[in-house]
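User: My advisor asked me to double-check a structure prediction for Integrator complex subunit 6-like before group meeting. I don't want to rely on an old file, so could you generate it fresh from this sequence?
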Amino acid sequence: MPILVFLLDTSASMNQRTYLGTTYLDVAKGAVEVFMKLRARDPASRGDRYMLVTFDDPPYGVKAGWKENHATFMCELKNLQASGLTTLGHALRTAFDLLNLNRLVSGIDNYGMGRNPFFLEPSVIITITDGNKLTHSSGVPDELHLPLNSPLAGSELTKEPFRWDQRLFALVLRLPGATAPENEQLGSVASDESAITQMCEVTGGRSYCVRTQRMLNQCLESLVQKVQSGVVLNFEKTGPDPPLICDDLNRPASSFGPQPWHSCHKLIYVRPNPKTGVPVGHWPLPESFWPDQNSPTLPPRSAHPVVRFSCADCEPMVIDKLPFDKYELEPSPLTQFILERKSPHMCWQVFVNSSGKQSDLGQPFGYLKASTTLTCVNLFVMPYNYPVLLPLLDDLFKVHKLKPNLKWRQAFEMYLNTMPPYYLLPLKKALRMMGAPNLIADTMDCGLSYSVISYLKKLSQQAKIESDRLIVSVGKKAPQETSIKVKNHSSSLSLAHLRDFKQLLHGITGEGPLRLCDINFKEFSGFQVALLNKEVKPQSYRNAYDIPRRNLLDQLTRMRSNLLRTSLKLIRGQDEDYLHSIPVAQMGNYQEFLKMMPSPLREIDPDQPKRLHTFGNPFKQDKKGMMIDEADEFVAGPQSKKRGISGDSSSGVTLKRRRSMSPLLRRPHVPPGNSNHVAPGKSLAGVQQNLLKPIPQHKGERKKNFYALEQWFSNYFWLKYPLSLIPLCSLHSPLDLAGLSPIYFNYL
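Assistant: Sure, here is a fresh prediction for Integrator complex subunit 6-like from the sequence you gave:
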């Protein structure tokens, strides 16, 4: 899974304009978006992880790290602003520390146990800068220096701040500001001459000198091709040169002296398994020291191992069922020289200095060999000192039939004594795959002392804590300074302590002669320079014709108020309306407004349910916890569950809330002879006469009279309006008719 880190220069010099009409920072943002679109064409880009680092002071330089998603990355990229210094060294150190955050926790570096090329996190750092002078708070350095002190635990185990699977590329913007260059050169883009170029070459990358937009697109397409899974090695020749091969004109193809292929700093491709998507390997590259069980510490390793190759032709060795690793070399002068020899059946052995127990050069652990089609050169990684081990294993299976004699066992024990102890585990695994699992005893140690093992475990725990701390700090904004304190570099007395202070004061006010020799211009004791609010953007026009037509009246008002000074303002040239105006794009950003609000006070009654804040209406209640009954009454959900079980036998559902029925809906018990409906032979007038018959007003019969009045209203509405305009269930009493509109009474 490739990791792509974009390191963008956010110094103030990135605000300069180009011939395109945009700033350098805008060009850098566009380059990032174009790169991501080009990278998305590759199906392998689905597992890419993008990070964003700027030149801000740590820890505010990391804008998007390990936990941020793609949306956060794009939002932070869009909101970048160019203000600050060109602290390239600190920014590079921050980027490398961000990549090395989880390496000790995951054990990917495998310190003291050999270097496994298949344990890798392929990373590409793409720096986009303008290539101007480096600036720092203490001055202007001439060279690029990375800070040596790193807060990351375990950084002392590697000499360099980077690792062998991390490469640095730089896009140095040299776009002119006036006009586009006429003679645009096509083809390969040259490297830049800035300070970052050397750092790129050390890590295995390169820099690009970008002068036009077309050249920028070409560089981005080249960078997309550079995103490969692999590690960087230093190949150096040892011993004499190979025999010269003459061409058709009987002239030697190479001359004496150092050649480019003698030392190459190139990548070897580590291809992932097509089934699992993860690289798989068997054998490590040896360390450049012999492990000592009595040593309390580990010597620091270099980021890129130095692999020496001997030009003596040897036949490639391999036996059945013995696993080996095969890595393709990146095209280089070394691969070109090997392919020109046209010897696909011969190989050159490779070594690592001080890897053996006694010899300085060590024993061979593999070989370089051209492919049979002469299209590439491959590095074959075998067991350590494989010219001794392979004949022994061949005799074990073919001669001894897995029943070795004493002589064979003595030779095998002698080989194990000359092999680094960290090769025991992969050798056991290989012998188990071949069908000989019991050749190596389980009591043999890996070679590291107890103090080293405990130290590595302690470093892993510290790295985990530091990783959590840095992940939390990602995305935090730097606090804005309210003022700048001016240091007092003067050691003389203050002006107020001088004897002739009054005369000097008269000279400053113009009442007397001014003596400039007595004034100390460097005296600013306790003086602070206030900073303007960055959110308020003053419009300072030097030319009246630069003012847009739509802003003429507003600008004239500001000029008049500034001239007459009729109002008190924090900033001259700004009126009250302008101070409170914000862009349209920020008007709906309510979340940022909530972050700036102070924390609310606690509720007076903590038993009251908390109101969920809803935008626009602070008194709006949550409708999810509300229920509506048949009478359009809002009843809270939890209250309906607390109803007791009614003792009435007619109530069917005990948990259902008993609604108070309207008196209009409660009908008294009517004998079977009495009916409110019109009989087939009676007229409507006769029924109405019965309804209007006077009712005796006795004190004991008030309740009956009330029900009789309700019956009159009910019968009247149902007889005159079978489909009544007024729902009777909403009339709780006859007095509710008083609230009806007069238009309803016109129908009665």
